[in-house]
Specification:
Layout: H1 6-40, H2 44-119, H3 125-132
Helix pairs in contact: 1-2, 2-3
Region (Disordered): 1-111
Biased composition (Basic and acidic residues): 23-35
Biased composition (Basic residues): 7-22, 90-105
């Protein structure tokens, strides 16, 4: 059992409907031609050639529409990829901002501790040595 996406199913149903509609139109045209041929006494070979030409035109139209559908799908996928890329950039930017904020906080805390050590409120030999050097 193969998996088909909702988009693909919709596209298939749409194409199936279009084919049925064209086929119905062809059937109507064929009916009109046969009526004309019977009334006008035309040759049967002419009608068959016209049917083949019309069928070829319908096939060409279907192929063109399928190509257009594929192009639209590709464009949609590209847009989705661009949106995802923008989202990733925003996430990275937020992460960098958080990291900078943490680093600034560490620096402020260290400076504050150093001040307290120098005043004699805190006793931390390592900080005092670092600060004095």
């Amino acid at each position: 059992m193969s998996f088909t996406s909702k988009k693909e199913k919709k596209r298939q149903n749409l194409m199936r409907g279009k084919r049925r509609k064209r086929q119905a139109e062809l059937e109507g045209e064929r009916g009109e031609r046969t009526m004309k041929m019977k009334a006008g006494g035309g040759e049967e070979g002419e009608g068959e050639e016209e049917e083949e030409v019309i069928e070829e035109e319908v096939i060409e139209e279907e192929e063109e529409e399928e190509e257009e559908e594929e192009e639209k799908e590709k464009e949609e996928e590209e847009e989705e990829e661009e949106e995802e890329e923008e989202e990733r950039k925003k996430e990275r930017k937020k992460e960098r901002k958080k990291e900078r904020k943490k680093e600034r906080k560490k620096e402020r805390d260290e400076e504050w501790r150093c001040k307290l050590v120098l005043k004699g409120v805190l006793k931390d030999r390592k900080l005092k040595r670092r600060r004095l050097m």
